[in-house]
Amino acid sequence: MADLFSSADQSNDGDDMATAAWKRRISQLEEEVEALQTSQQKKLGFAVAGHCIRRLVSLTARVEDLVGESDWHMCLDDFEGQHTKERVLESRDAPKLANIFKELNKGADSARGDDAASLKSVVVQWLMSADPEEPALRPDENDGRGFDHELTGHLLCLVDYDWWRADHHAAIHDCHPDFLVTTYSWPTFLYENELFDPNNPADGLFNGKLLVEAFKQIFTSPTLVLKMDDEPSPRKCQRRDKRCTHSHVASLLGMKSVCPHAVAYAAVQVVDGEFNYEDFYNNIIDFFEDAETPDDKNTI
User: pLDDT per residue over 8-27, tens digit each?
Assistant: First the structure.
């Protein structure tokens, strides 16, 4: 009888040990899942931050260059001379920092492509619905756009020229030296109602409908762009409406107001391929940042 109880006790001990082992294994798996989720959340955070860098900080700079520049300015501000640029960079956890830079640059590199893809078709829809000029633009084709189409040519034409004058039109197409399209003047689409006042060049600048719609497409929910101007904003998104998002880009980026870099970024997305986009971007930034008088700042 004693042997029977002893065998039963051993069996129970074995079951308890197996149960404890499974509990430990489950606990380990839960910790691994939590660590994986945390890692994925960090990567998602880096991707969002990378998008932020392109949209709100710099059009082309690599993250490590931005950090190096910031460190260098910090060294210049260190009047006691305790740091140098090399020491500031070397004082950090280099492997971990390199991985962070990699994820941030990956997010930054994807930003322009993502935004260009989202704008490609909707810009054509906006233009064709407002002015169905023949031949019709097609969202899936790049040919026949830019200065090869009457409508887009007019929008891209610099305010120094008159697109509707036959001689100006022909000269622009022929790349006449007196009618070169450069980044040192503003294209027509930047102006409200596409009207330029030579006596007040800042009037209506950066209020053009195409620029405003592109800005909204990039930084706010597409639903807000597609609704009519006289329609109230929807209180909540319907599940079946795939255009709705839980948080639009401006919210994710923490934008509280429109900044010069965001305006320049949206403008570049509209004209990319027609101008030297980096110079165009920088010229817009300079326009905002070089305002000196109170009147200039109020106008901007």
Answer: 455 555 566 666 666 666 66
- 111-121 in b/e form (b: 16+ CB < 10 A) is bbeebeeebee
Alpha-carbon distance of 78 to 138, in angstroms, equals: 57
Q: pTM here? A: 0.70
Tell me the per-residue pLDDT of 35-60, one tens digit each, with 9 for 90 and over. 554 554 455 567 777 878 888 889 98
CA quadruple 114, 115, 118, 120: dihedral, nearest 10: -110
What single string gives the DSSP state of each residue in 209-230? HHHHHHHHHHHS-HHHHHS-TT
Place of tokens 């392109």: 54
Alpha helices (H) in the chain, listed in sequence order: 2-56, 63-77, 85-90, 94-130, 150-156, 166-173, 209-219, 222-226, 249-253, 260-271, 277-289, 294-299
Distance CA(285)–CA(300), nearest Å, equals 12
- For residue 68 the two structure tokens come to 């190096």
- Tokens for 293? 């008088």
CA angle 294, 295, 299 (to 5 degrees): 115
Q: By CB neighbour count within 10 A (0-12 exposed, 13-18 middle, 19+ buried), where does 288 fall?
A: middle
Instruction: Please say whether the beta carbons of 109 and 91 come within 8 A.
Output: no
Say what angle helices 94-130 and 209-219 make with each other, to 10 degrees: 140
